[in-house]
Design a protein that fits this description.
Layout: E1 3-7, H1 11-22, E2 26-31, E3 42-47, E4 50-55, E5 61-62, H2 64-73, E6 84-86, E7 92-95, E8 104-107, H3 112-123, H4 125-148, H5 167-173, H6 179-186, H7 190-198, H8 216-224, E9 226-229, H9 235-246, E10 250-253, E11 257-261, E12 269-272, E13 279-280, E14 283-286, H10 290-297, E15 313-322, E16 330-333, H11 338-346, E17 363-367, E18 378-387, E19 389-390, E20 396-397, H12 404-418, E21 427-433, H13 435-442, E22 468-470, H14 481-497
Parallel strand pairs: 1-2, 1-14, 2-10, 7-16, 14-22, 19-20
Antiparallel strand pairs: 3-4, 5-9, 6-9, 7-8, 11-12, 12-13, 15-18, 15-21, 16-17, 17-18
InterPro entries: Amino_oxidase, Carotenoid/retinoid_OxRdtase, FAD/NAD-bd_sf
Pathway: Carotenoid biosynthesis
GO biological process, one term: carotenoid biosynthetic process
Length: 498
């Protein structure tokens, strides 16, 4: 039995702690915030009409089997803790008109044949045939990734070479091709290309630079379904905390880890703010951003290359809305020029073009049809647009600049109104969350939603010194609830095998 310290009580840290405690290890978990959950945040607002509740992080759960396995492996059943509701549509896509045509709406669903038929009904038979051809390709990518990558350690790019003998996998994944290139080679309708491009943002990446292998992301969502957790996805953090406590994990919130002790070339423990003596440990699992680990907790300049380079943050509005909107649970309102949005958000340091708020952004709106999260006769809206990270460089924005956040909030509401969803005269309140706010609340550098690494290949789960492991969205296999939970499974297995 090892003494293990987990740094950070996000989903990755909680899931790792539960798995390790279930196998007999002595686990202590330190969290800098007063509550657990990390980016799986929650917020409530009391009004005379009643209380509004918001998920301020993920709003969609995919790959439910990953969570079923987590609870079973730690001695429980998923449905004893979580009430999952399947969504149809998973996402309602609102596309602008092209060539003088009318705007169109496409609802995604978890039955591949039914979704293809919906595409045919909205965009025509050629688009349906294109999507079916793309879907076969995405399935090949998904199965190769699931078999060899997503549940296995990838400590370096060389580890991916084990796929080289499977020529069919290489033909499907096509290393070097972008997700944008994959879309253009399979999909003629610009709206389907736009739909595919959006999935690059799930990993914090620009679709023009993201690898084609990210086609596995829409495949996972559309093949296995999207789910809502009744009462809000923040309840997942409560369930994982309950498992940890039942298994004997010591959880200390409001406790900041300031360093990892690794004198002599291996981990010995961690240092806490305000403590006079370090906490001893045989193993340390860091559920904080890899940039924070290698810049602050265990300085390793050689590990910083590529981190905080090109990864998305988000600008958020929390709205209390009177009346019913008729929107789906998840809605995406696309702009006419998607590339202009990415040009704005990422900037171009090479040409000296700074990042800036996108003037006509894609707008994501989540409206849960759940009486538990809003007063009768009202709706709780979570509104998200892609945004540059908090900072003062050419590829970031200082969101703390006076007046900027309020002005951009006005702009987003105007954009929604222009796209046919005007709630400006039905607002009880609005609250703003910028990338600077997320950085402060979760300790995520720059407020990067999916970790500072971005893209497909993330920092390894095994650290550079024996006894150190990394878990969470900034590490392999990536961001999003199922990937973070799989990273916990990988780390727990490696510790168990040591």
């Amino acid at each position: 039995m090892s003494r293990i310290v987990v740094v950070g009580a996000g989903v990755g840290g909680l899931a790792t702690a539960a798995r390790l405690a279930a196998t007999g290890h002595e686990v202590t978990l330190f969290e800098r915030a007063e509550t657990v959950g990390g980016k799986l945040g929650r917020h409530s607002r009391d009004t005379p009409a009643g209380t509004f509740h918001f998920d301020t992080g993920p709003s969609l759960l995919t790959l439910p089997q990953v969570f079923t396995d987590l609870f079973l492996d730690t001695g429980a059943k998923l449905d004893e803790y979580l009430d999952l509701v399947p969504l149809d549509p998973i996402v309602r896509h609102h596309f602008p008109g092209y060539g003088g045509g009318a705007a169109t709406v496409l609802d995604s669903c978890a039955e591949p044949g039914a979704f293809a038929a919906r595409i045919g009904a909205v965009f025509g038979p050629e688009a349906e045939a294109d999507w079916e051809r793309f879907w076969r390709r995405a399935g090949r990518i998904w199965h190769a990734a699931w078999r060899d990558i997503l549940r296995s350690s990838v400590d370096s790019p060389l580890d991916l070479a084990r796929l080289a003998w499977r020529l069919g996998d290489l033909a499907a994944i096509r290393p070097g091709q972008s997700l944008r290139g994959l879309g253009r080679s399979h999909l003629r309708d610009p709206r389907l290309r736009m739909l595919l491009d959006r999935y690059a943002t799930y990993t914090g990446a620009d679709p023009r630079r993201a690898p084609a292998a990210l086609a596995a992301v829409p495949y996972a969502e559309l093949a296995f379904g999207g789910w809502y957790l009744r009462g809000g996805l923040g309840g997942l953090a409560d369930a994982l905390l309950s498992r940890c406590l039942d298994l004997g994990v010591v959880v200390q919130t409001g406790t900041t880890v300031t360093g990892i002790n690794a004198a002599g070339g291996r981990v010995h423990g961690v240092r806490l703010a305000g403590a006079t003596a370090p906490v001893p440990a045989d193993v340390v699992v860091a559920n904080v951003d890899a940039l924070t680990v290698y810049r602050d907790l265990l300085p390793r300049p050689d590990r910083l290359a590529g981190l905080a380079d090109r990864s998305l943050a988000g600008f958020v509005l929390l709205l209390g809305v009177r009346g019913a909107s008729g929107l789906a649970h998840h809605n995406v309102f696309f702009p006419t020029d998607y590339d202009a949005e990415f040009d704005a958000v990422f900037g171009d340091a090479g040409r000296g073009v700074p990042a800036r708020p996108a003037a006509d952004p894609t707008v994501f709106v989540t409206v849960a049809d759940d009486p538990a999260v809003r007063p009768a006769g009202h709706e709780s809206w979570f509104v998200l647009v892609n945004a540059a990270r908090q900072g003062r460089s050419l590829t970031s924005i200082d969101w703390r600049r006076p007046g900027l956040a309020e002005a951009y909030a006005d702009r987003i509401l105007d954009v929604l109104a222009a796209r046919g969803v005007d709630v400006r005269d039905r607002l009880l309140f609005r609250e703003i969350r910028t990338p600077a706010d997320l950085a402060t609340a979760t300790g995520t550098p720059g407020g990067a939603i999916y970790g500072t690494a971005g893209g497909m290949l993330r920092p390894a789960n095994r650290g550079p010194v024996p006894g150190l492991f990394l878990v969470g969205g900034s590490t392999h296999p990536g961001g999003g609830l199922p990937m973070v939970t799989l990273s916990a499974q990988i780390v727990a297995a490696r510790i168990g095998a040591a």
